[in-house]
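Q: What structure does this chain adopt?
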Amino acid sequence: MSSETSARPPKIPESVLVVIHTPRLDVLLIERADAPGYWQSVTGSKDSLEEPLADTCVREVAEETGIVVDAARLRDCGLANVYEIYPRWRARYAPGVTHNTEHVFALEVPAGTPVVLAPREHVAYRWLPWREAADACFSPSNAEAILHLPRWLAGAA
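A:
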């Protein structure tokens, strides 16, 4: 275990995925600093078991993109994915934790919204039409969420 992982408390295996999009369904993707070529939406684990999911979303969106929003602007998509944590990131969790529950949210922002990345977490960003964004994601659950976006926004969740 590295000093970085031993100095931090284990991550809580409950997280959010926030698909940030414009009214025209251009989707923001950010490239991970610790995994070049891995493009994703905003993700992040709860800071405490008591932290409401909407608060996790607001915090992670601000930390990862510099976009500050009120929780009322979030759309809970009503989807929770349970997936196996990639082995390369399991050391961040308590021993024996192998799965994470990810709650999906959407956030609409105006076209041209400025993005300021957290350089320790992400190295690049891009806005892509929703189908292209889904194809560019490394995570199957992230791609699925983006593909469902038009339906969720139409109210057919």
